[in-house]
Structure formats: structure tokens, C-alpha cells
């Protein structure tokens, strides 16, 4: 293979593979799907099949911006053609892309429009591995995202560049807690302290918290007790191709997880202001469509109220 | 458990030959063709040994030296072998300074390369600090 051909191959149409993992509302007796995080896998059988090596490589090639475009296009296209469009879809974007590619947000809105995907149902997850990108262009891009009705999440809160400065720059609607903090939290009071502090911080910002990497009932119970209402992890579902998604059956199956993880104590008050804040935004319908289990005969149904 | 090696070379034929030869001997082999691909692999996986060509781009490249440094930043146990057709005393000295375990001039016979890798890995299990094989 010639030099540069790997990057060129990755940027070619159809090279990347989208998968989706549900973000589940767990603060009620019945689970609902808050949305889906769109994730990218590289070409099968290559070194960059896994996301870790793929994006490490892309960052070393300083190709975040063109790769973000290809990833967003791939994920939104798959979302628009599947059940994912019924709720929310989250896409990861490097802060450096938002800070350097002045046309990125307009391009993203255009892609969503062309795919007949409501941009108000999109969450832009800001990720960054390089030092903070605090350019005026970055703030303008976030403002454009919000003005278009989408939500802004900050990925990997508490790790690397997703630090307090980034929190102040982004003012996230959603704080995503990395799996390294949430994993093993049940038996670790220090992890619980960090989680509790992030829940409190998010509440002060009017944001919500997503705990990633939840894999056990005990972890789910602990983070619910700490006031985390949104959960992502293998306990609910691994990332799957759109053809493998079955939200109605999944939601029905998750009921037992919520029953088994019912909080025994309440250690924190969940931030109640967020849903009001988001839903009051002019023209915003975000968080207004959920898949729920509402059937009196215990059969799952779709609620789009 | 089999040993894992990373082979870094811009020549597909060399990658193919080394991969097939070492896989037949029970090694787990990954191949990379460029500096960034190799570094991304090294950042996310642990290898027992890295075999790297000095030049990965054109006739002036010395990316192999950068890979030696990168390996040494993240692992003192991973053995590194630099192979080149363009060796010079200066390059060899620089490779040693960066922590290379062995420096080989092309052409290299695959059985000799396998013997060197095996000896390095055995040595690393015994005492990583006593190897003196660079300059073969």
C-alpha cells in the first residue's frame, strides 16, 4: 500500500461503518430511549477497525476535520434510514474541527436537511484530545449548533482535555462521564464522590449527566442513587448496526434492569431544571420524543408525546 | 501465549514475507506502513517486539528513528530492531542513543531475523538490561 493510502481509504465514501449504542433514561420506573450515540468503526480486517486505533491514527495525521465530516455524514445517513431518527442521534466532533473548520456546522445542518433529519434531534458531542481549542470560531460554532436547536454534549468529562476550562467553554447541555470513572463505582467511594460532584456541577450548569460504560446491575443502582438519569453501556446494549436495532423489544427487556437496580437510598437530587430549560428553547422539540413502555398489558408501545 | 510483534515497513512485499514467516512460527503479527499508523497501534496495544525499517517515506526519511523513540517512551520491555539499506555509523549511533536493541543491514535472511527476535525475547525475560546485540 502506498504512503497516505490508508487515510485516503478511510476518507473514501463507504469505508467507515456506523454503529449505534442507546442512551437510556433510567430515572423512572419504565426505561425510555433518550437517543443513540453514533459510533464509527474502520474497515474490517485493518489495523484501524477499532475506534481507538482509528482515531489515534487520524489525530496523528492531523486529519480530524475531514474525518469528522466523513463520520458525521456516515452516521446521519444511517440514522435517517433507521429507527434512530425516531429519537435523538449523537455525533462526536473534535473541538479542533469546530474551532478551525468555519463551515462545519452549516455543512452539518445541510447534511441533516438533505437527509430529512430534524437537526433539533441531533446532539453534538464535543471530544478533544489536544489542548483546549478556545478560538472565537469554536464559540461561534457552538452558538450555531444551539441556534439550530441541537444539543451540545461534552464527552469524557473529567479526563484529558475535557476539564473545567473546557466545561466553561462548552457549557454543555449534557455531561458525559467516561467509563473509567463510572466503571467499578459501586465498591469505590472515591469514584462515587467524583460522580456525585459531576452531577452537582451539571445541575448548576442546567445540564444532564450520562454515565458511560455501565456494565452491571450494581453499577446501575449506584449511579441511579447518585442522581444520574441517563445511562449508556453494555448492560443495556453494545453498539450495533442499524439492522440489528430493535428499540421496542429492547425497552421491554430493560424493564427488569430498572426493577433490579431500584435505588435503595437517594444520595443526590437530580437536576430538575434541565428538561424545562431545553424544552423552553424556542422551536426546540428535543427530548420530546421517546420510546416508552406504556401498554397496560405490559406490551411495549411507541410514545411520541 | 504467543509473542506479538509489530512490523513497520513501506514495502508491501517485505511486510508480507515477514508476516507469513513469523506467523508460521507462532507469532501474532501486526503490520504498519507509515509512522502514524505504527504509533497509533503502539499507543493502544502492547508488543513484545517491533521490527522497523529506517525509511518509510522517500529517500531522506528517518521515521524508524522516531518509532524507536516512541517505543522507548511507552515501554522499556518492548524490543526494537531497526533494519535499513542505508545504514551509516551516524544512523547506528543515533539509533543506539534512542534505545534500539538491534541494528541490521539489509538484506536480512528471515531465519536470522527470527533467531534474533527469539534471542531478544528470551533475553528480555531473563534480564532486559544485559543484551548487547546491536550492530549485528
Keywords:
heterodimer; A: 305 residues; alpha/beta; 8-stranded mixed beta barrel; two-stranded antiparallel sheet; 12 helices; 10 strands; 18% strand; globular; disordered C terminus; B: 136 residues; 5-stranded parallel β-sheet
Question: Summary?
Answer:
The complex is a heterodimer of chains A (305) and B (136). In chain A, 39% of the residues lie in helices and 18% in strands.
Main pleated-sheet profile of chain B = 5 strands, parallel
Quote the distance from N terminus to C terminus of chain B.
Answer: 28 Å
Q: Number of DSSP helices of chain B? A: 5
Residues in helices of chain B, as a percent range: 40-55%
Report low-confidence residues of chain B grouped into runs of 5 or more: 127-136
H/E element order of chain B: EHEHEHEHEH
Biggest sheet of chain B: strands side by side, in what order?
A: 2-1-3-4-5
Q: How would you describe what is shown here?
A:
The complex is a heterodimer of chains A (305) and B (136). Chain A contains twelve helices and ten strands. An eight-stranded mixed beta barrel of chain A has the order 1-2-3-4-5-6-7-8, surrounded by four helices. Chain A has helices at 5-11, 51-60, 64-80, 95-100, 104-114, 136-147, 164-170, 179-182, 189-204, 217-225, 247-260, 273-279, and strands at 17-25, 32-41, 89-94, 122-127, 151-157, 174-177, 208-211, 230-231, 290-292, 301-303. Chain A is globular and about 55 Å long. Chain A is an alpha/beta fold and 305 residues long. By secondary structure, chain B is an alpha/beta fold. Helix content of chain B is 46%, strand content 18%. Chain B contains five helices and five strands. Chain B has helices at 12-24, 35-44, 63-74, 89-98, 110-127, and strands spanning 4-8, 28-32, 49-53, 79-84, 102-105. In chain B, strands 2-1-3-4-5 form a five-stranded parallel beta sheet, sandwiched between helices. In chain B, strand 3 (49-53), helix 3 (63-74) and strand 4 form a beta-alpha-beta unit. In chain B, helix 2 (35-44) packs parallel to helix 3. The termini of chain B are far apart. Classes of the chains: A alpha/beta (305), B alpha/beta (136). The interface between A and B is medium-sized, with 15 and 18 residues.
Amino acid at each position: 500500500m502506498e504512503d497516505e493510502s490508508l487515510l485516503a481509504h478511510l476518507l473514501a465514501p463507504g469505508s467507515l461503518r456506523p454503529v449505534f449504542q442507546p442512551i437510556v433514561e433510567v430515572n423512572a420506573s419504565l426505561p425510555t430511549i433518550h437517543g443513540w450515540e453514533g459510533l464509527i468503526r474502520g474497515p474490517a480486517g485493518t489495523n484501524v477497525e477499532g475506534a481507538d486505533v482509528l482515531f489515534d491514527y487520524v489525530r496523528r495525521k492531523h486529519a480530524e476535520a475531514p474525518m469528522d465530516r466523513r463520520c458525521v455524514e456516515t452516521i446521519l445517513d444511517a440514522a435517517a434510514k433507521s429507527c434512530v431518527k425516531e429519537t435523538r442521534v449523537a455525533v462526536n466532533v473534535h473541538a479542533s474541527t469546530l474551532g478551525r473548520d468555519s463551515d462545519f456546522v452549516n455543512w452539518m445542518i445541510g447534511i441533516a436537511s438533505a437527509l430529512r433529519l430534524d437537526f433539533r434531534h441531533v446532539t453534538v458531542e464535543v471530544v478533544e484530545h489536544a489542548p483546549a481549542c478556545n478560538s472565537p470560531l469554536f464559540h461561534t460554532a457552538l452558538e450555531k449548533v444551539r441556534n439550530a436547536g441541537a444539543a451540545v454534549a461534552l464527552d469524557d468529562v473529567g479526563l484529558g482535555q475535557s476539564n473545567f476550562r473546557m466545561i466553561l467553554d462548552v457549557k454543555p447541555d449534557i455531561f458525559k462521564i467516561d467509563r473509567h470513572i463510572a466503571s467499578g463505582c459501586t465498591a469505590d467511594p472515591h469514584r462515587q464522590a467524583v460522580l456525585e460532584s459531576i452531577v452537582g456541577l451539571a445541575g448548576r450548569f442546567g445540564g444532564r449527566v450520562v454515565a458511560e460504560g455501565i456494565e452491571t446491575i450494581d453499577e446501575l443502582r449506584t449511579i441511579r442513587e447518585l442522581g444520574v438519569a441517563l445511562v449508556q453501556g453494555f448492560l443495556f446494549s453494545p453498539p450495533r448496526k442499524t439492522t440489528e436495532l430493535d428499540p421496542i423489544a429492547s425497552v421491554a427487556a430493560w424493564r427488569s434492569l430498572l426493577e433490579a437496580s431500584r435505588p435503595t437510598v437517594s444520595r443526590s437530587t437530580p437536576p430538575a431544571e434541565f428538561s424545562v430549560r431545553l424544552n423552553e428553547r424556542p422551536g426546540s422539540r428535543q427530548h420530546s420524543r421517546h420510546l416508552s413502555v406504556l401498554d397496560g398489558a405490559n406490551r411495549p408501545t411507541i410514545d411520541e408525546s | 501465549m504467543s509473542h506479538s510483534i509489530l512490523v513497520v515497513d513501506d514495502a508491501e512485499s517485505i511486510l508480507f514475507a515477514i508476516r507469513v514467516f513469523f506467523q508460521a512460527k507462532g507469532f501474532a503479527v501486526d503490520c504498519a506502513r507509515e509512522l502514524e499508523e505504527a504509533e497509533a497501534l503502539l499507543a493502544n496495544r502492547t508488543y513484545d517486539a517491533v521490527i522497523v525499517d529506517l525509511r518509510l517515506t522517500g529517500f531522506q526519511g528517518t521515521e524508524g528513528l522516531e518509532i524507536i523513540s516512541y517505543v522507548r517512551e511507552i515501554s522499556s520491555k518492548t524490543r526494537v530492531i531497526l533494519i535499513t539499506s542505508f545504514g551509516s555509523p551516524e544512523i547506528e549511533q543515533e539509533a543506539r542513543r534512542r534505545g534500539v536493541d538491534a541494528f541490521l543491514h539489509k538484506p536480512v535472511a528471515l531465519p536470522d531475523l527470527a533467531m534474533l527476535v527469539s534471542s531478544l525475547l528470551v533475553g528480555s525475560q531473563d534480564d532486559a538490561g544485559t543484551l548487547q546485540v546491536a550492530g549485528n
